[in-house]
Design brief:
831 residues; alpha+beta; eight-stranded mixed barrel; five-stranded antiparallel sheet; 31 strands; 42% helix; binds ligand C2E; binds calcium ion
């Protein structure tokens, strides 16, 4: 062994030998120090480390002889502490400048050294150079830093967890995803961060990774705190130490939500496409223009009910089977695409099935073009669209049918009418007609028998109307209780009248509703179809005629003529003008004097409205009042007249005072006479013009009294309560009898001018006499209007008539002329 120790003969070393052996051959440094930290003994390795060669040369030296002073001082302090406490220091890693000048890492253990009496007399030390290990650790640290900076740049989320599932590392992306800084994440488990069900799932994955010891990949959901749930793909693998033991799990994940969605969309559209292909059972065709041959796929032929061998290659096999109404269009579409005018071929057409019926098809095609642009071939498919067409037709039918009666509705009627008009323009010789029918007093049926019965009646009428026409004609329900008939291909114009009479007779037969016989009638308007451009115009004229029939007392028909149209148009124009007349201040008040026969004085005026029409000139009430009543415009007109008459008369009263004061009579329409606002309106006007109600007379017609008598009486009484007098106008022309007059608070009767004018005839003279006598008995005054002759005046004087008005005295005149009459003074003087 040369340098090896010498052993005793038995080969077994004694303790001292053993110690020496170990000391000399151990690669670690061993040394003993006394209480002053001076070396008492060092081994060979330590001597080498100290750079002194012979271990003996260390004895009596201390660390200051070998190391920098601060290190030596620190060592001495540590050793004093060990000796004082008797506690060792183990595995202390120290960075030292070794006596040979090199920087080293040393792992040192120092133990207190006790003497035979147990007192601590020194220190035993053992050191090992661990520099190479430390270099490894530095490398690890460096590579870890590199790793971290690297994974921080990754667009994926990277994390590591220990075996307890606590995060030990997260990259920047992970922080972004969770919205939390790394400090808030490290040490947390998935249960701290995510919904419990997800955390459980993650934990299961982790355990799988740990158990299997290899990488797993999964698509999972992820929901960072306060954020929406996403789909992620995750890769997880075990983290191992250098010996291969698993320390935890590391993972990478990224968001695949959009990808998954896109994939799902794709899958769905693929499915749809597959379904469409499957459902369509398209028949393919391929047309070689140069050879003028078409390849028809077996499926194409089967669509028409043919076997493969039954149809050849000629394009006629296709086109000859197409419906005559569609074949031109199909050919045009094919040409349009072949010549490049259409970007593709798409055409719907009917084609004859082998069994004879028509099948709706959709052909789609694309041309194969030579570089010159001319196409040599076109290929495409043929799809059976019968089902879709049937559905469409049904929808169309529903859109054009009246659900209650099953008749065509207005839309379809108008459609047929415009078709007929178009055809009529082409061949003018066959006349046609439209009839509009309206059920008379249908509202009464509805109100008395209920809506269900009303509906029943309409259905029953519909059936009878259908029985009155020929199959080619159209009976439609326009809406409500309005029907229409379109009569086509008539022999002559008189046919329409024949149908109208037939309808009248049919409808006149009783209907049975809930076991009860119901009678009804219709009013009809006929319009011959010639000379119309638009169906609405024809229908409108039939409508106008129908309204004429209603005016004539219903249950009859009227044939439209141009006069009717002109009247209808004029009426419409008048209505428009009338609506504007008030705001344009076109109304005027004319005044007709009322003269007392007792005193022969001018006692007042009747205010009569006129319309200064911008183009038609001064219009009398007869020309526009009926329309004003119909449209409701009469209410504002009457109030305007009242206001103006009060203002004017008030002014005259002030300017030309007379005793008793000048009076004024104002007419009030019976239309909406009983309305709650009337009294307030009158009061307002009186207050506004500061007019004494005692000087005002309101003239109402008998028709007012025909309405709800209690309400009318109440209203009249309230008006009279204001001090206003009430005259009953046009007495004798209405339904009124003297008998009921006492029930109403009336002051005077006005005898209609027709009686006055006819007083020369015996019976009329008698009538006027009767009226005046009875009025006298009932303490009612009598005013005669329309006095035109001195003879009439004489007779009225004989009959004790109070007051008169008429052309004999004055026509109604505008206010300046009326003022002249007032200015002359009350005593009447013929002008
Ligand atoms: P009315 O209330 O009976 O008025 C008398 C009508 O007889 C007036 O016709 C008047 O001009 C006319 N008249 C007067 N003296 C004679 C005569 O000697 N001979 C003949 N043949 N006629 C005479 P006017 O002004 O055309 O008014 C017609 C009707 O219009 C009035 O009949 C009245 O019912 C109504 N009316 C006039 N102004 C108004 C009004 O402001 N409001 C309402 N609601 N109706 C009015
Ligand atoms: Ca009057
Ligand atoms: Ca009158």
């Amino acid at each position: 062994m040369g340098t090896g120790p010498e052993l005793p003969g038995n080969g077994i070393p004694h303790d001292a030998q053993l110690l020496r052996l170990l000391m000399d051959h151990l690669p670690d440094s061993i040394y003993f120090k006394d209480a002053d930290s001076r070396f008492t003994r060092v081994n060979r390795a330590q001597a080498e480390w100290l750079g002194i060669g012979d271990p003996e040369r260390a004895v009596g030296k201390s660390d200051v002889d070998f190391y920098p002073a601060d290190f030596a001082a620190a060592t001495r302090a540590l050793e004093i502490e060990i000796m004082r406490t008797g506690r060792p220091v183990l595995d202390l890693d120290e960075h030292v400048r070794a006596p040979d000048g090199r920087e080293r890492w040393v792992s040192t253990s120092k133990l207190p050294l006790a003497g035979p009496d147990g007192r601590i007399i020194g220190v035993f030390g053992l050191s090992r150079d661990v520099s190479s290990q430390h270099a490894d650790q530095d490398r690890v640290r460096d590579s870890e830093a590199l790793y971290h900076s690297l994974v921080d740049t990754l667009p994926q989320n990277v994390f590591r967890k220990d075996l307890d599932g606590r995060l030990t590392f997260v990259n920047r992306k992970y922080c972004e995803t969770t919205g939390l800084p790394a400090e808030a994440l490290l040490g947390k488990s998935d249960f701290d961060l995510y919904p419990a069900e997800l955390a459980r799932k993650y934990r299961e994955d982790d355990l799988r990774v740990v158990k299997a010891g290899r990488l797993i990949e999964a698509v999972e959901e992820h929901q960072p705190p306060g954020r929406e749930r996403r789909v992620i793909r995750v890769l997880k693998s075990p983290v191992r130490d250098s010996r291969g033991y698993i320390l935890g799990v590391q993972g990478v994940f990224w968001d695949e939500t959009d990808l998954v969605r896109a994939q799902e969309d794709l899958r769905r559209s693929e499915e749809r496409f597959a379904l469409a292909m499957e459902g369509a059972h398209d028949g393919l065709w391929d047309w070689d223009f140069l050879k003028n041959e078409v390849y028809f796929a077996p499926r194409w032929k089967a669509q028409l009910g043919y076997e493969d061998g039954e149809i050849g290659h000629n394009p006629d096999e296709w086109f000859n089977r197409v419906h005559p109404d569609d074949v031109r269009r199909l050919q045009e579409e094919v040409d349009a695409h072949a010549e490049g005018r259409a970007i593709h071929l798409e055409c719907e057409y009917r084609i004859r099935h082998k069994e004879g019926h028509w099948v709706w098809m959709l052909a789609r095609g694309m041309a194969v073009r030579a570089p010159g642009g001319k196409s040599a071939r076109m290929a495409g498919s043929q799809t059976d669209i019968s089902q879709r067409k049937r559905a469409e037709e049904q929808l169309v039918r529903q859109a054009f049918t009246d659900t209650l009666t099953g008749l065509p509705n207005r839309a379809l009627f108008m459609d047929r009418l415009s078709q007929t008009l178009r055809r009529g323009r082409r061949k003018a010789e066959t006349p046609f007609s439209a009839i509009v029918l309206d059920v008379d007093r249908f509202k009464d049926v509805n109100d008395s028998l209920g809506h269900a019965n009303g509906d029943q009646l309409l259905v029953a009428i519909a059936r009878r109307l259908e029985n009155c026409v020929r199959p080619g004609d159209t009976v439609a329900r326009l809406g409500g209780d309005e029907f229409a008939i379109l009569l086509e291909d008539m022999q002559d114009e008189g046919d329409a009248v024949t149908v109208a009479r037939r309808v009248q007779n049919q409808v006149a037969l009783p209907f049975v509703l809930e076991g009860q016989e119901v009678f009804t009638s219709v009013s009809m308007g006929l319009a011959p179809g010639t000379g119309y451009e638009k169906p609405e115009d024809l229908l409108r004229d039939a409508d106008t005629a129908m309204y004429r029939a209603k005016e004539r007392g219903r249950a009859c028909y009227e044939v439209f003529d141009q006069g009717m149209h002109a009247r209808a148009v004029a009426r419409l124009q008048l209505e428009t003008d009338l609506r504007r007349a008030l705001e344009r201040k076109e109304f005027r008040v004319f005044y007709q004097p009322i003269v007392s026969l007792r005193t022969d004085r001018l006692v007042g005026f009747e205010a009569l409205v006129r319309w200064q029409h911008p183009s038609r000139g001064l219009m009398s009430p007869a020309e526009f009042l009926p329309l004003a009543e119909e449209t409701g415009l009469i209410l504002p007109i009457d109030l305007w007249v009242l206001r103006e008459a009060c203002r004017q008369t008030g002014y005259w009263q002030m300017k030309y005072s007379q005793n008793p004061p000048l009076r004024v009579n104002v007419n009030l329409s019976s239309k909406q006479f009983v309305r709650s606002s009337l009294l307030g309106e009158i009061k307002d006007i009186l207050a506004e013009s500061a007019f004494d109600p005692a000087s005002l007379t309101l003239e109402i017609t008998e028709s007012v009294l025909m309405e709800d008598s209690a309400a009318v009486r109440a209203m009249l009484e309230r008006i009279r309560g204001l001090g206003i007098k009430l005259y009953l106008d046009d007495f004798g022309t209405g339904y009124s009898s003297l008998g009921y007059l006492h029930r109403f608070p009336i002051d005077s009767l006005k005898i209609h001018h027709s009686f006055v004018g006819a007083m020369g005839q015996e019976e009329h003279g008698q009538l006027v006499r009767t009226i005046t006598t009875l009025a006298e008995n009932m303490s009612l005054g009598v005013v005669a209007e329309g006095v035109e002759t001195a003879d009439q005046l004489r007779r009225l004087r004989e009959l004790n008539c109070d007051r008169v008005q008429g052309y004999l005295f004055s026509r109604p005149v505008a206010s300046p002329a009326a003022e002249l009459l007032v200015a002359r003074g009350p005593a009447w003087q013929a002008a």
